[in-house]
């Protein structure tokens, strides 16, 4: 986050009224400050000495986005004040109606993305030694995992329930789950699926939403 060089100019540049509910200004230290129209709710987005971005508000919420996470997930955001304003707007909308929420967003030394909060939620997302995706998520006591197997197929588990999207010996792609669902997709169908969804992972999520949950 760049330091404030000309106070008046930056205040004019980054003061934003939205829906007459509040305004965003930049203080003399370069920190973005939000204040509701009635003055009862305040929030800020500031940079610490490690170049992390930290959101805090008057309802005792705190979200910390570590530098390495931002550079991986939203490259360019740390040097883009307009993007930070949009982030602050979103965080105000998401957090202004609850209190005492804490969350951290980071990337560890193994390039694993980790998101964790004080409400028993944790997400770990990375790749295995073969470059295949590996995601583990814990939500309200449930453990969820998404990974690719050695054949390149996708496997999903939630507690004791399972689903897969994998290729058989006849080059057909098959969705199966522990609820008894089984759907086969030929080579041409899979080609059209990839054209529509972009990746087989996106299509797998569609199948999970439709048949697993």
Report on this structure.
The chain has 213 residues and is α+β, with helices and mostly antiparallel strands. The chain has helices spanning 7-14, 67-73, 81-95, 187-197, 200-212, and strands spanning 16-18, 22-26, 32-36, 42-47, 53-57, 62-65, 102-107, 113-117, 122-127, 133-139, 142-148, 154-158, 161-167, 173-177, 182-185. The chain has a 15-stranded mixed beta sheet with strand order 1-2-3-4-5-6-7-8-9-10-11-12-13-14-15. Strand 4 (42-47) and strand 5 (53-57) form a beta hairpin. The protein starts with 6 loop residues before the first helix and ends with a helix.
State the main characteristics.
213 residues, alpha+beta, 15-stranded mixed beta sheet, disordered N terminus
Q: What is the residue-mean pLDDT, rounded to a whole number?
A: 87
**Tell me about the biggest sheet?**
15 strands, mixed
SSE-based structural type: alpha+beta
N-to-C SSE series? HEEEEEEHHEEEEEEEEEHH
Q: Which geometry do the CA atoms define?
A: elongated
The number of strands is 15
Measured by DSSP, the beta-strand proportion falls in 35-45%
Number of helices: 5
Helical proportion, percent range: 25-40%
Measured distance between first and last alpha carbons: 42 Å
Strand order of the largest sheet: 1-2-3-4-5-6-7-8-9-10-11-12-13-14-15
User: Low-confidence parts lasting 5 or more residues at pLDDT below 50?
Assistant: 1-20
